[in-house]
Write a structure and sequence with these properties.
Layout (H helix, E strand, L loop, with lengths): L3 E3 L2 E2 L6 E5 L8 E6 L8 E7 L2 E9 L5 H8 L2 E6 L5 E6 L6 H7 L1 E14 L5 E4 L4 E6 L8 E14 L2 E9 L3 E5 L4 E4 L2 E2 L4 E3 L9 E17 L6
Antiparallel strand pairs: 1-2, 1-7, 3-6, 4-5, 6-9, 7-8, 8-9, 10-18, 11-18, 12-13, 12-14, 12-18, 13-17, 14-15, 15-16
Length: 232
């Protein structure tokens, strides 16, 4: 049976809602700059990153439906899981209008999810490491590089390297912890943004697919790593 999970809630829990069809599994398109040079055969293609794209779901109504609950369910954004990819999480927005009048009259309508190009695992748990840490080995189990979220506990000045390459310098002082969110390109903790305590380029916080090493120079007592695997 087809279903969705939107922000943790299964569509099967919505009275009278039926997921009639799901979108096929596709690879996002690559944005590119194409330049033609006089006197040169062909052109020069410069990749600019993967595009967000749309995934459409056909929904229907069964007997004893509650249209208000259906509308509430799709008045949303955040994370969605499609049952034909039960272990992958998409980040989405609902930007297109949903024709609920058609849904009521013909018992069918289309819902278009505008999704970001990368998927994360719905079953991988955060990795936690304790005691005075210098190097951590981990696996990106996805099929493309990932931009993880790394929470670091410690004190003083801490240098962070990935695969033996210097990535960031952190002036943690006595703040206790800091979260490096490479995907959002932000540093923060419970008291707010901490970007001013971080030197370096967040673009360097990348785990290649397969095995990676995360190194530390400084007083690090605990590390929690999430979003370390990623798929297209």
């Amino acid at each position: 049976m087809n279903y969705l999970i939107i922000n943790g809630q299964k569509s099967l829990s919505i009275q009278g809602l039926m997921i009639q069809s799901l979108p096929p599994i596709t690879k996002p398109m690559m944005r590119a700059q194409i330049d033609e040079v006089d006197g040169r055969d062909g052109d020069i293609v410069t990749p600019l990153g993967f595009q967000a794209y749309d995934r459409s779901v056909v929904i229907g109504l069964t007997r004893f439906f509650d249209i208000d609950e259906v509308i509430r369910y799709f008045n949303s954004y955040g994370e969605v899981i499609f049952s034909n990819e039960p272990y992958k999480i998409y980040k989405f927005d609902l930007l297109s209008q949903i024709d609920f009048e058609r849904l009521l009259r013909f018992r069918t309508a289309t819902v278009t999810f505008h999704v970001q190009p990368f998927k994360h695992s719905s079953i991988e748990l955060p990795l936690e490491f304790n005691n005075h840490l210098q190097e951590i080995a981990l696996l990106n189990n996805g099929n493309i590089y990932s931009k993880p979220k790394i929470e670091i506990f410690g004190e003083g000045d801490i240098d962070v390297s990935i695969n033996d390459q210097m990535a960031l310098a952190i002036e943690l002082g006595n703040q206790g912890n800091i979260i490096i969110d490479a995907e959002q390109m932000e540093a923060y903790n419970g008291t707010g943004l901490k970007n001013r305590f971080v030197s370096g380029n967040y673009d360097n916080i990348i785990f290649e697919k397969g095995r990676n090493t995360l190194g530390f120079d400084g007083n690090v007592s605990r590390v929690v790593i999430s979003n370390y695997s990623r798929w297209i």
